[in-house]
Amino acid sequence: MKQRIRLYQQPAGGWGALKSSLQHLREQQVAGLGLPTLLRTNQPDGFDCPGCAWPDKHFHSTFEFCENGVKAVAAEATSRRLTADYLGQHSVSRLAELDDYSLEALGRLTEPLRYDAATDCYLPISWDAAFALIGHHLQALASPHEAAFYTSGRTSNEAAFLYQLFVREFGTNNLPDCSNMCHEPSGVAMGEQLGIGKGTVTLDDFELAEAIFIFGQNPGTNHPRMLETLRDAARRGCRIVVFNPLRERGLERFTHPQDAWQMLSGGSTEIASAYYPLRIGGDLAAVKGMLKALLEQGYGDQDFIADHTSGHAELVRDIADTTWPALVVESGLSEQQLREAAAIYAGSRATICTWGMGITQHKHSVATIQMIGNLLLLGGHVGRPGAGACPVRGHSNVQGDRTMGINEKPAAAFLDRLGQAFDFAPPRAPGYDVVGSIEAMLAGKVKVFLALGGNFAAATPDTAMTWQALRQCGLTVHITTKLNRSHLVHGREALILPCLGRTEIDLQASGPQAVTVEDSMSMVHASQGMNPPASPQLLAEPMIVARMAAATLPQSKTPWLWLVQDYSRIRDKIAEVVEGFADFNQRVQQPGGFYLGNSAREQRWRTQGGRARFMVHDLPARQAEPTDESLFTLMTVRAHDQYNTTIYGLDDRYRGVSGHRRVCFINRTDMQRLQLQAGQWVDITSVWRDGERVAKRFLLVEYDIPAGCLASYFPETNTLLPLGSYADRARTPTAKSIRVRLSPSEAA
Ligand SMILES: Nc1nc2c(c(=O)[nH]1)N[C@H]1C(S)=C(S)[C@@H](COP(=O)(O)OP(=O)(O)OC[C@H]3O[C@@H](n4cnc5c(=O)[nH]c(N)nc54)[C@H](O)[C@@H]3O)O[C@H]1N2
Ligand SMILES: Nc1nc2c(c(=O)[nH]1)N[C@H]1C(S)=C(S)[C@@H](COP(=O)(O)OP(=O)(O)OC[C@H]3O[C@@H](n4cnc5c(=O)[nH]c(N)nc54)[C@H](O)[C@@H]3O)O[C@H]1N2
Ligand SMILES: [Mo]
């Protein structure tokens, strides 16, 4: 693979996106099935794109091209197969030497596997024996709380609903999920402030907005279809304002690959009308600065404030007490820039704020999101057409999984309804989240770890500790489509259970089944695969869950196997238990699905006090060693060719990197100050109260990034992120603010 660093000067999208898509289809050898499969992505009668949670236009009937959607679909529809033969000849220790890119390239798993300690290999096992082994281990535990059940956000509503039911009938709320590492702070912050933990806008609002503020998000890579929405907004004169330490190309200029004229003429659309490269973690200060500029002019929607909110006076006092120099230092932006951003806000009658991982993965993420909420509330921009809060979710059904009860702290009312519908007494004590599960495994309190999708060993912080934790388990079980790192970091006993993917036909006793998902804007719709399964031995996720439950819970009154013969039976149960799902089976048949509704959008505030709440927050306290000039703040982000821990390729096109993943972006003045040079290899050491962690050999890349800030990719850098470093109140690992220093690598 050619390694190269070169400034990228093209707009995002365009021919580069088409070329890269074709290359991925070729590499995955999907030629035969490729095109028909792609054309059914996000169609009313097709399957939901496993790429991201950005919604689709209503009643969509034309194929919407998305480069990273193509990669996600191609990765699943690949014709490559990882057979039991191959695994019988390649020990786990040997496989562990492969990098994540090579593991992914091995292809789809074809049959259930059990780890055999004698040969250090995964060997075939029958499905019956696999379920019996799970049942045996779970029943042997001293308490149901000694097992943890992880979920990754691609899981369908039907599978997720059955899974949480199984776990709760088993007797625990130990349901850690990828949300814990993702938008958990958005749920916590908005739940408290607006009375609902989900975004208040729909796609239609983007067509009416006069200003869109985008915080800490890179849609060009992670939500490419959002660029189309932004392009349309920019073209009709909507102001788009970006806060991001990096100048992400997709937010600057975009060429839509389906716009023939732009493609042929070499044209593009300017997206952002203002771009503020703030310091990492500077958003709380930046938004406070905007509030200060606005309040100094007496700005505010006084009717909205009086009718709908509480806490305005306290906020005004707090902002008046915060000085401009503090705001400037903390945000890394000038007073002038903050006033300018405030003026754009003040001039808009309909404002949307969107945010991503650049906001949620900090210690003060909940406070920052509530400050963004304050900004929206000040102008009455919640529950008004074209305005509102938009946390942009990651996994394609991560929001739906939460709606279905994948939550280690379930609401009492949900548990009441669940218990009633299935005639059992659900456990009430809160369970472990992701960080809590790792701690519990380390302490020997969790002995069985089961994962419905995902790649826990790679996605989680503190790699060394997490691996130790997983290896201490008596049994680890992974339901998965492909081999990944987590299967190689296993317990004393281990199972890999291969399942169908979204693109595949799911045939059960009553015929082919559809599942449902919920996007980032609370639209619920059906998804139905159309490819033959990668292997005849694969089972659908709902079936795997049902058979685990049947094997583990002989006394259960739930007709597990009957439910999965026809998924509309599961949906009838969901309708009984989950708010907003009445007549689920009928409503989901509308093309495009149905809207779940949102109380804040209707200006009903289900908060403490019954009003939307202005919330006061101090600027984040500077870390202990503010004067140590050798310390940086490192953010760990996604490259263009990855899906979280799945590495499709080694390029990060829009940032000009090819053939590399171990890079570290740094500002020129910082390099000069520390006598480092671009192209040099460095080790990164993180500094935390319990000691230091090192990640070796990263190539320094000179980049337009604020001084004192570094950027690198995950999962390679997760080894630097201390388990104890997480968001206040939401416990999301602080993947965007790791305190580190650099040192030259020893010659290799
Ligand atoms: N192709 C593809 N699509 C994906 C994914 C993928 O890996 N690949 N992952 C999916 C998932 S699970 C998720 S959660 C989403 C993630 O989508 P994003 O939230 O876009 O994820 P990141 O790559 O982590 O990018 C974070 C952005 O925040 C910026 N940033 C970092 N720190 C700060 C800060 O302190 N302040 C501000 N204002 N900005 C900051 C970074 O420069 C970067 O542009 O994407 C989903 N979609
Ligand atoms: N340092 C750092 N760490 C991070 C982040 C960061 O920005 N920085 N981001 C965090 C975020 S936002 C998230 S959401 C997490 C993601 O954490 P996870 O959701 O755990 O990780 P993924 O990489 O999305 O999981 C990929 C695996 O899912 C499996 N898979 C794919 N399709 C299917 C399917 O249809 N069914 C089943 N059962 N399995 C399937 C495959 O085995 C694949 O290897 O990572 C977090 N970790
Ligand atoms: Mo995520």
TrEMBL record:
<keyword id="KW-0479">Metal-binding</keyword>
<dbReference type="InterPro" id="IPR037951">
    <property type="entry name" value="MopB_CT_YdeP"/>
</dbReference>
<comment type="similarity">
    <text>Belongs to the prokaryotic molybdopterin-containing oxidoreductase family.</text>
</comment>
<keyword id="KW-0500">Molybdenum</keyword>
<dbReference type="InterPro" id="IPR009010">
    <property type="entry name" value="Asp_de-COase-like_dom_sf"/>
</dbReference>
<dbReference type="InterPro" id="IPR010046">
    <property type="entry name" value="Mopterin_OxRdtse_a_bac"/>
</dbReference>
<keyword id="KW-0408">Iron</keyword>
<feature type="domain" description="Molybdopterin oxidoreductase">
    <location>
        <begin position="108"/>
        <end position="480"/>
    </location>
</feature>
<protein>
    <submittedName>
        <fullName>FdhF/YdeP family oxidoreductase</fullName>
    </submittedName>
</protein>
<keyword id="KW-0004">4Fe-4S</keyword>
<keyword id="KW-0560">Oxidoreductase</keyword>
<dbReference type="InterPro" id="IPR050123">
    <property type="entry name" value="Prok_molybdopt-oxidoreductase"/>
</dbReference>
<dbReference type="InterPro" id="IPR006657">
    <property type="entry name" value="MoPterin_dinucl-bd_dom"/>
</dbReference>
<dbReference type="InterPro" id="IPR006656">
    <property type="entry name" value="Mopterin_OxRdtase"/>
</dbReference>
<keyword id="KW-0411">Iron-sulfur</keyword>
<dbReference type="InterPro" id="IPR041953">
    <property type="entry name" value="YdeP_MopB"/>
</dbReference>
<dbReference type="Pfam" id="PF01568">
    <property type="entry name" value="Molydop_binding"/>
</dbReference>
<feature type="domain" description="Molybdopterin dinucleotide-binding">
    <location>
        <begin position="632"/>
        <end position="717"/>
    </location>
</feature>
<dbReference type="Pfam" id="PF00384">
    <property type="entry name" value="Molybdopterin"/>
</dbReference>
